[in-house]
Structure formats: C-alpha cells, structure tokens
C-alpha cells in the first residue's frame, strides 16, 4: 500500500462529509420549536461553562477544535459517534419490532442487488473468517415479508469501509439482498474487525486528550425495508468480542448480539430474524 492510498482521518472524513452534503436534508421544524430547542441547548452549555469555570484559553481551544473538525470533514463521524444514539432511542419510541441502532457515517445507498442466497461482493484475496448470516424478515404477526430488502454493509478484517478508505474497491462488503418469497435470506461474508476512530484527526485527538478509547466493537450494519413497513436501521455485534461492553458510540443493545457457531462444514453460521413495525400512517 502506498502512502497516498493509506486511509487518513481527513480522507475518510472528507468522503463522509461530501456524501452527506449531497443529500441537502430538511426537517419541518417550526420557528417556535427551533427556538425552544436552541434555548435549552445553549442554556445547557452555559451551565457547563459555569459549573466548570471554563477559561478563555479553553474557549479558544474549543473554537480551534470545532474549526478543525470541519476542516477534516469529521462532523459526520463526531456526531454519529457521540450524539446519534440518543436520537435513535427517541426514534424507536412506540415501536415493538427489531431494535434499531445508529446508521453511522459510512452507509452508501444503491448498492449491488443480490439474490436471497448470495455472497457479499469482496476482493479475490479478502482476508477474514467466513461468516454465513441467515434469517427471515417478518411482520409483527410473524408472517414472512416477500419483497423485503436487507441492505448490509460492514468493515473489512482490518476495520476499514469501502468508499471511505482509498485502497478498497467501491462496493466491497456492501449489498442489497432481495429476500425470497418467505422473507428469507442467507448471506456469506467475512467477519469484520472492530473499528477504531482515526487517531490522526480531531475526533481522535479529542478522545486521546480526554483519556477515552477510540473503539467500536466489530459490527454488521443493516437497513431492512419492506413495502408498507417501517424501515429499520440497525447493527449486529458478536458475543464476547472486544469492546462489545464498552462501545465509544454507545450503540450496543443486548438484543443485537450474535453468537455464531461453526456449522457441519466448519464455517461460522448465525441466524437473526428481523421484525418490522407497520409504516407510520
Ligand atoms: C462506524 O463504523 C460506525 O458504525 C459509527 C456509528 C461511527 C463511526 C464508525
Ligand atoms: Fe460502522
């Protein structure tokens, strides 16, 4: 790998920021609601400044660091690691299907469509233990959902994501699986490694200065969709894996932990079924 191809904080941050910025998102927040939220947010920050006696030099360092987060394109990373889990918990209120988890900064839409029994796109020399992930997409009544799709994306065995690390081909370890007539799927892939927040950018500097750790446990990202059902965005983790009990992004839930076991062929297999709530009316 040449140095220009090595993953850098500024490279993955810039790619994540460019992807997000293309969406031009909107929300129907009224001026009254915005004012109430902003008043409370600024009030909370004011209380922190007061409580800790924040100094002018600390204030200037904060200003510089906030500028650096933008320069490195790390707002998607920082926000999704430290803030998104709270938003996701609010979004799940009133739901009873499969638990959600954060989307994170590395989702890519419109990945390769794959049949219900498939192997995720990977390099000819992809390293890592083979993992067969199977299951069924169902409604709340237990009926399998034909027409559902399971979008799966995950890091490679070194913890890097395609589209956000220059040495990995686009589309690697990503796919949109079309379930069968009973809502079932069986996907062969490789076991991802834990993810480390890059230490050469402002999110990593902040974590190091605070004496925290920069790790997420190994995880699969999923977005499961079906006609007339509420889309779920979630993640699945691996029992006993490093950082499962101590995720820097606070995004692990006990219902989302897999326990793969070797099958008759010696290959690790695991079953996980997804239950979708009805779409909001
Ligand atoms: C990840 O891989 C991730 O899933 C999240 C939420 C944040 C940073 C990197
Ligand atoms: Fe991730």
TrEMBL record:
Keywords in alphabetical order? Dioxygenase, Iron, Metal-binding, Oxidoreductase
| Cited Pfam families | Dioxygenase_C (PF00775), Dioxygenase_N (PF04444)
Q: Where is the composition biased (Polar residues)?
A: 1-15
- EC number(s) on file: 1.13.11.1
Tell me the Gene Ontology biological-process terms attached to this UniProt entry. catechol-containing compound metabolic process
**PANTHER family xref list:** DIOXYGENASE, PUTATIVE (AFU_ORTHOLOGUE AFUA_2G02910)-RELATED, INTRADIOL RING-CLEAVAGE DIOXYGENASES DOMAIN-CONTAINING PROTEIN-RELATED
Which protein are we looking at?
A: Catechol 1,2-dioxygenase
This protein's species is Rhodococcus hoagii (Corynebacterium equii)
Q: What is the lineage of its organism?
A: Bacteria, Bacillati, Actinomycetota, Actinomycetes, Mycobacteriales
Name of the gene this protein is made from: catA
